[in-house]
Amino acid sequence: MFKQFDRSKRIGRLIDATSSGLAKRRGLPMVIGILLVAVALIVQLLAYLFTSRALDITATLLHSIGVLFALIGLTVSTPLGK
């Protein structure tokens, strides 16, 4: 299964494009993560005001995704170079 994945030219091109794009904008994943956490804070406040369970779940998901983006950005920024 993984042999076919490793040999895929489409996946290889996607990884190359992502790597070269992030090398030019190393801080972008961290900025996206910070923005997602800020939006999650606003949604969390709205969920508190309107006592909405759906808004609470949305805020939790946004916060988690934002933290993951920021951590991935920190992890990837060093190997991509200065």
How would you characterize the overall build of this protein?
With 82 residues, this protein is mainly alpha-helical. 85% of the residues lie in helices and 0% in strands. The chain contains four helices and no strands. It has helices spanning 2-7, 9-24, 28-50, 53-77. Helix 3 runs antiparallel to helix 4. The protein is elongated. The termini are far apart. The mean pLDDT is 86.
Structural features:
mainly alpha; elongated; 82 residues; 4 helices
C-alpha Rg (nearest Å): 17 Å
Distance between the termini: 36 Å
Order of helices and strands: HHHH
Number of strands: 0
Q: Can you tell me the overall shape?
A: elongated
Instruction: Indicate the percent of residues in helices.
Output: over 70%
What is the oligomeric state here? single chain
Q: Describe the main β-sheet briefly.
A: none
Separate helix tally: 4
